[in-house]
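User: Some background: our group keeps a shared notebook of sequences we're curious about, and every so often someone picks one and asks for a predicted structure to add to the entry. Today it's my turn. The entry only has the sequence so far, pasted here. Could you supply the structure so I can complete it?
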Amino acid sequence: MTLRTTKTIYWIGASLTSLWFGTSGVCELTKNPIVWDITLQLGYPAYFIYVLGVAKLAGIAVLLIPNKLLRLKEWVFAGIFFDIIFAFCSKLIVIGPLATIDAIIALAIVTITYLMFQKLYPTKYSNLTAI
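Assistant: Of course. Here's the predicted structure to add to the notebook entry:
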């Protein structure tokens, strides 16, 4: 795979992820009934929904900054993965298997995007020695 292809796949994935989680974050902050009611039905408290909305929008802002804040982007990807996993498990247990389709699609998109991110910006570890 060429560098150009990797970048293209990454930016398509980052755009889709940003659109998905940005829309979700805005819906959480504006008390949109579609998102709000489902999240309450899953048993999460109202204050958590606001915190989640702010975290999503902050994460998306970091994700869309090109070639900067790479370590922080790792944390954003981790947060998105946690959000997807919790959404999947909560929906599976409370609502049922059909409600998990969106989480499965999101997981596929974010996984591919993260793999392209890793190809573009491989993690470099330093030689730290224990004292």
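Suggested note for the entry: The longest helix spans residues 3-29. The chain has one domain: 3-120.
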